[in-house]
Amino acid sequence: MPKLNLKQHLLTPRPAPNYKDRRKSVERNLINAESALGRTLFGAIPAGRSREFFCLQKNVWIWSENGQIIRYEVRENGVYKKIGEGGYHKVTGEELEHFTAATKAYLELVKTRIYNK
Fold first, then answer.
1. For residues 31 and 39, what is the distance between their CA atoms, to the nearest angstrom?
2. C-alpha 81: how far from chain center
3. Where do the domains of the chain lie?
4. Per mean pLDDT, which range of 2-11, 39-48, 61-70, 83-92 is the poorest?
5. pTM for the full model?
6. Residue from 109, 112, 85, 98 nearest 35 by CA
7. Span 36-66, pLDDT tens digits
């Protein structure tokens, strides 16, 4: 068995941690934690169903229920949604009111429960 040269071991350069991968991992974990809270905003989830609601980026929100994904984009001229692979449509009326209320409740919940603010 070869002898371990402690001095050589300690002086051997180590690869720098991959901060880009670490950052992606942290972001993914935060989105998962936020989504876990976001899914509670809409009441109990029926057995056998799944639900996600989270802020993906500053102006992008994701709602997913049973694999159907709705992407909401907040733009200067309004809120637009895209269902699956379809095109974007402007959100108006009661749906816009519900979206606004849900995002406000989500932000307050995440801010207090995850970020302690």
1. 12
2. 17
3. 25-38+48-113
4. 2-11
5. 0.77
6. 109
7. 999 999 888 889 999 999 999 999 999 999 9
